[in-house]
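User: structure tokens for this one?
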Amino acid sequence: MKTLTRQAPAKLNLTLDVLGKREDGYHEMKMVMTSVTLADTVTLASEPGEGIVLSSNLGFLPVDGKNLAVSAALRLKEETGADWGKLTIGLEKRVPVCAGMAGGSSDAAAVLVGLNELLGLGLTRERLMEIGARVGSDVPYCVLGCTALAQGRGEVLTPLPALLHCWVVLAKPGFPVSTPELFARIDTQKVRCRPDTGGVMAALEAGDLPGVARRLFNVFEAVLPERKAHQVEELKQELFRRGALGASMSGTGPTVFGLFDAEAPAREAAEGLKDMCRDVFVTETL
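Assistant:
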């Protein structure tokens, strides 16, 4: 049996803009994304036999092709003819599910990168990103794994200077968010404010953490249903009150995050937020 273990980090949107709907049904996106140390652990094992078996510490996750980790393995096999015999995928989930942090996409990316190494396929990162784009829009970014500008539907990536090391408090509210509903809302509502993506890129280039933090912005916050928007805004204001340099929602939410320049205030803020959210994490930028 051959085995390999990889980490699958969560991603955050420093900015998120939706530029319009495309002819192929997807939306044209423009986002600056980065990764944090909060991560799932993905274990791969190849042995004689056939099929794919997935196990997870979360019993409600699908274990077939509806799980992006399995979907990524199947797509890799379809694209390359890779033969792993019987493949066992183990997921130890730490990144919250349906939280706007690409947990499933990062698992898929870890499977692609891990199988490439485990089986000695010799595929380039660019080729893995191409395959990942057929699995999900965030998978190519998760294969790349650095601070990057994402365009197209998220698969056109330009690496950027890394966000300076900082501490990040993550708080996931208890309500669900429907991604299709948010895209439908943004198609029918006028977006009055958009992120200063160029300003964020310039601040990254200058190594200006406060400059990045004060420009955090996600257009989806403006189209959340009123009650959910109010809860997101409450979390952001609490993060600011407790010393965050900047705060925003990641992806289609509902996770809210704040950037801190020191560990102590970040941990104090996280403790304070536990009265507002069950799922609160302290992590760091990669």
